[in-house]
Write the structure tokens for this entry.
Amino acid sequence: MSKKKSKEIIVLSGKGGTGKTSITASLAALQKKQAVLADCDVDAANLHLLLNPSIKQKTPFVSGKLAKIRQEDCISCGLCLENCRFDAIIQQKLLDKVVFTVDPIECEGCGVCVHFCPAKAIDFDEQKCGNWMISSTKYGPMVHAKLHIGAENSGKLVSLVRNEARKLAEENNIPYILVDGPPGIGCPVIASLTGSDFVLIITEPTLSGRHDFERILKLVKHFKLPSALLINKWDLNPEIAAQIEETAHEYGSIILDSIPYDPAFTKAQLSVKPVVEISPILKDKIKIIWEKITEYI
């Protein structure tokens, strides 16, 4: 008998600071280990701050290559400088010799300098860009990651995190995968969005919130995914909240619910807990939100 496919729910926001991670942590806390958790905001992961995971497995994330000139073999011909289109080659004069080095920040790993070097004096090794982890939490297993400062390929790492989360869910017959997605609409968001079953979009009633909500809606519509809107802190500006709901209608997104401003969210963050553990009112509210989500997947 084949196992039932786990449903993947991704929580997104067009911008940071809307309460996306707080809502994700609360949904996780209500699932009683019925969901595998995945933090796909690998550039600035913070779901672990609320879920206190215990790391069980830590694996280096290796992606991309970096050029490095071996000075003892370099003949100072300058072909690397001439052919690099990313201004990654630095030319210096030390004593009576012209020395060429590679700026690791500017290097895009294209390999052009390696190809044209007549002395074969440039190493081109794969780079460790960060780590990805499988952890346990009191709410269920969690897959998360952290890129090194300045590292790239976050979209590739997001895909890896999602794949590992799906493996965990299928191996353990866990019905849901709950993804805390990255903010914005860039490559990491696309990598976390494609192939999911349902998108929960968290926004706030501000001008930037409304603008970025529409951008994420356009992206979701492009991938033809079902989505729902949750307005956090809606009572801070009811007029803009109403405008956001109108935009959701235009794009065919479900208006799921609204949550008023509540200082319990800040208290929960300071207590390092999901807000549903300190606020019975919000617990009931978010429980209803989850029940509504499961009606659509």
In short: The chain is about 35% helix and 30% strand. Residues 104 and 162 are 29 Å apart (CA to CA). The first helix runs from residue 20 to 30.
